[in-house]
Every structure is written in structure tokens, then in C-alpha cells.
Design brief:
The chain contains four helices and 38 strands. The protein has 482 residues and is mainly beta. The longest helix has 8 residues.
Length: 482
């Protein structure tokens, strides 16, 4: 396996700092390319599209919150003081609430108050834990859906947003997410389905079922049971083809740690798994995620770092890539399946699936042998980690820009309060792995993805807000030609 990281001869570098007009920093320095790859480099005007410094319109999602009282046995006399959303109580009755560790700063502050206090006789209780959890942009309608947890983390609301005339988001409405018995639920994974009129979601509260929400009626109308003698529940779902959610196809794929399978909610059996269209591993493969191409090829990631490429759901993988040993959190493919994108905690893997001058395909035939496998490892540069004080890198799901017949140009992800946008087109042409932009958001980021058919617009969800992150063209007089 050929790992391509920061090991090319450094022959060219540039850095454009602080576009004073727009207040934007273009992180584009120390490109490491070979003489051969330099001659292959062809600039494109979209390469100079950079993220705006600030979004033009931010929507506060706290309007989606549902008022809910926390039941406690605390007497008001036990309340020492309240700061923002945190209440501090005397120890005498703390056993009815979860205890959170006090920071030294909190302790020092409390000790300055006019009463006796020490670390052992006071506990702080966070009374609010509402935050955005997921975001889905519709490919069929003027809609963006946001899943937001309530403070209990066992219930959620689904917010409806739309694009206005300036292509910014506006809040429309919300619904509480509940099962068919009207019990609150909190989705762990969501998938738009059947022309974006339905929402499929999984929950840890009921891991044996796929919940089907009718987005027109605003409620769960079906529950597909998955667990049977051969299938031990479900942890991930994906469409049969990359953009199947814009069609009326009722079928989807499912996955758990040791099996992949086809799901059909129309079959009369108690379990909705189509048994002939499944593959169960006898060993512990620890499968964690899956994705499909427009042709219907399948890629899976695992907690052991392995990546598998399939041509059919009920057959063995054509290609097994060992990865680097760290868990694959998310996986995605380009529309044509020629590239696979894997998100790990502190790096991203980009894998070309064609080999021998693009004459062979890792999803078909005999697959890719070890000598034919190569990976590009995307990491943040050390100087950026230091500059932006990124102590704990934890990437959200990385996405390609999406759209029918789009030649993918970008990869976007985030960590903490920073959006990172890699130039995928440069990687394909030259092997560049550190051509990226960074923009600081206002708060911690939950989700970033490209708007469908708009490669210069990002849908961004922070913990308490959502917005469209637009881009602008970098002034060419500030740039340096290669």
C-alpha cells in the first residue's frame, strides 16, 4: 500500500494572508508536489472561491426548544447561585440530579462568595443541554431539516427551514419526534427517503427498528423491524444508489457490526430484511458505516479501520483495504465511485478505486491487490494546529460537493469551531494533500455539507444556529500563478 501524505519534494509555496477587503485568510501554503505533478497542474477559476469571513444570515435554533421542567427535590434555599444555564446547589439534596465535576475556575468563584464553601459541599447542575444534532438538505424541495436534542438527550425536535431570495435560511416550523405510541425519541442517524417526502431514522432507544416519518404529515407512520435470527439489529442505513433519495425507490441498505442487508418495508414478514440479499460475516468485522455510488456499488468502513468494496450486497467484498487501524466514523464515495472518502477522528483518508491507468475498478472483477492500493491522508498542518490551538481534533463527517453530473471539486469537514475545506481537484491532479482553507465559526460545529447542485454554498450547523456559508472569488491580483 502506498500512503501519500506530506512526503513529496517541496518545490513551491505561497501564502496569501488577510485579504483586507474581505477579512479572509486563505490557508494555501507549502504545497508539496513533484516536478511531474507540477506539469499536470491546471488552474481553474473555482480554485479561487474562498469561504466568506462571516455568514450573511444566521438562524438561532434555540427557537425550536421545547419548555420542559426538570423535576428535583431541591428547595429554593439550597440554591447558592445561578450563572447562565448552570445552577449551583448545596450538597444536602444533590443525589436527585446528575453530578458534574466543578472546574477550578468555578470553585474559586464560589469560594469568593459570602458563605462557607468547599469542593465537597456544592455541586453544579447544568439545566440546559439543548443542541443541534444533525442537518439534512433536501435535494427535491426548498427545505433543510435540522434535528435538535432537548436537554434530556432522549427526545428531539425536527426543524423545517427554507431558502429565502438571498439563498439564506429561514425558520419555518418544528415538530416533536415521537414513535407511533407518542413516546419521545432522539435519532442517531437520519436519511431522507422516497423523493424526500419521508425521513428514515435509527435510535439507540430501539435499535431493532427503522422508524419511518412522513414529512408531509409530520409524524412516524411505520416502524420496520430488522432483528431476526440472522440479523442482530441495525446501526446504519444508506440508499441503494448515491442519489436514490430523489427517486421513489422504497428499498434501502442496512448494516450492523457483522452484516449488510437489503431492507424492504413492503414485505409482509415481521422482519423487513430481504434474506437472499444479505451477507453475514462469521468473524467480528465491526462494520460501522456504509455508502453507495450512483451505479449501486457499496463501500463499508469498520471500527478496525478496514474498508471493503462490494459490487453486490449479498457477496463477499471485491476489495479489502486495511486502512491505518483507527475506526472509520463515516464513509462517502464520489458519484462515479472512483474515489472513496473516509472520516477518522483526526485525519481523513481519500482512496482512488481505479488502477492500472484507470482500466480496472476496485468494486469489480478481482478487486484491488495490495500492490495496487494507495491512500491519500489528509491532516491539518502542525503550524495550523498550533496557530488555532486545536488540541483535540475530532472531524465531523467529511463530504464531497454534490449534484447530478458534478465533477467533485471540494471536500468539507469541521472540527471544534473550524470549517476546513480541501481542494479535492488539486489532490486528483497533483497529489496535493494540504491544500485547504480554514474559517472560524462562532461556536462548536455539528455538521457541514454542500448544498445540492451549489458547490460554493455550504450548509452549516453549529450547536445553536444554522446558516448557509457562502463563498466569494479571491482577488486574482493577490494570487501567484504557478
Amino acid at each position: 500500500m502506498n500512503l501519500i501524505a506530506n512526503n513529496h519534494l517541496k518545490i513551491w509555496s505561497k501564502k496569501i494572508q488577510n485579504d483586507n477587503k474581505n477579512g479572509v485568510e486563505w490557508i494555501k501554503d507549502s504545497f508539496e508536489i513533484t516536478e511531474e505533478s507540477k506539469s499536470q497542474y491546471v488552474s481553474d477559476e473555482n480554485d479561487y472561491m474562498v469561504l466568506d469571513e462571516k455568514p450573511s444570515h444566521i438562524v438561532d435554533t434555540s427557537d425550536m426548544d421545547i419548555e420542559d421542567e426538570i423535576e428535583t427535590n431541591f428547595d429554593c434555599n439550597d440554591l447558592i447561585f445561578q450563572e447562565n444555564e448552570t445552577k449551583y446547589y448545596k450538597e444536602s439534596n444533590f443525589n436527585h440530579l446528575d453530578i458534574l465535576n466543578n472546574s477550578n475556575e468555578d470553585i474559586n468563584y464560589l469560594q469568593s462568595l459570602p458563605f462557607t464553601f468547599n469542593e465537597n459541599n456544592c455541586h453544579k447542575i447544568n439545566i440546559k443541554n439543548n443542541e443541534n444534532k444533525d442537518m439534512l438538505g433536501s435535494k427535491c424541495f426548498n427545505r433543510v431539516f435540522v434535528v435538535r436534542n432537548t436537554h434530556s438527550s432522549k427526545s428531539s425536535v425536527l426543524g423545517y427551514f427554507k431558502y429565502n431570495e438571498n439563498d439564506d435560511l429561514e425558520f419555518e416550523n418544528k415538530i416533536e419526534i415521537a414513535n407511533m405510541k407518542n413516546l419521545s425519541m432522539s435519532p442517531d442517524q437520519c436519511l431522507l427517503h422516497q423523493q424526500n417526502r419521508k425521513l428514515l431514522f435509527l435510535t439507540s432507544q430501539n435499535p431493532e427498528y427503522v422508524n419511518v416519518m412522513d414529512l408531509v404529515r409530520g409524524k412516524v407512520v411505520e416502524e420496520w423491524k430488522i432483528k431476526d435470527a440472522d440479523c442482530g439489529g441495525i446501526t446504519y442505513i444508506c440508499p441503494m444508489k448515491k442519489y436514490d433519495d430523489i427517486t421513489d425507490n422504497p428499498l434501502v441498505y442496512g448494516l450492523n457490526s457483522n452484516s449488510i442487508f437489503l431492507i424492504d418495508g413492503r414485505i409482509p414478514n415481521e422482519s423487513k430484511v430481504v434474506a437472499p440479499m444479505s451477507h453475514v460475516y462469521q468473524t467480528k468485522t465491526q462494520l460501522s458505516c456504509m455508502a453507495t455510488t450512483e451505479q449501486g456499488f457499496i463501500a463499508t468502513g469498520s471500527n478496525t479501520g478496514q474498508i471493503r468494496l462490494y459490487d453486490q450486497i449479498n457477496k463477499r467484498a471485491k476489495t479489502l483495504l486495511l486502512g491505518l487501524g483507527n475506526p472509520i466514523k463515516y464513509i462517502e464515495t464520489t458519484e462515479d465511485g472512483k474515489w472513496v472518502l473516509c472520516t477518522c477522528q483526526d485525519y481523513i483518508i481519500v482512496i482512488p478505486t481505479t488502477f492500472q491507468n484507470n482500466q480496472h475498478f476496485g468494486f469489480e472483477g478481482r478487486g484491488m491487490g495490495k500492490s495496487e492500493q494507495q491512500m491519500y491522508i489528509l491532516r491539518l498542518k502542525n503550524q495550523d494546529i498550533i496557530k488555532y490551538n486545536l488540541r483535540n481534533i475530532n472531524f465531523t463527517k467529511a463530504h464531497f460537493d454534490i449534484g447530478k453530473n458534478i465533477d467533485e471539486h471540494w471536500i468539507v469537514t469541521s472540527t471544534g469551531s473550524f470549517i476546513i475545506k480541501w481542494n479535492f481537484r488539486h489532490l486528483k491532479q497533483t497529489g496535493m494533500v494540504n491544500d485547504y482553507q480554514i474559517r472560524k465559526a462562532n461556536n462548536c460545529l455539528v455538521h457541514t455539507e454542500f448544498r445540492y447542485n451549489f458547490e460554493n454554498d455550504l450548509l452549516v450547523s453549529e450547536t445553536d444556529s444554522v446558516y448557509v456559508q457562502h463563498s466569494h472569488k479571491l482577488l486574482l491580483e493577490n494570487s501567484i500563478e504557478i
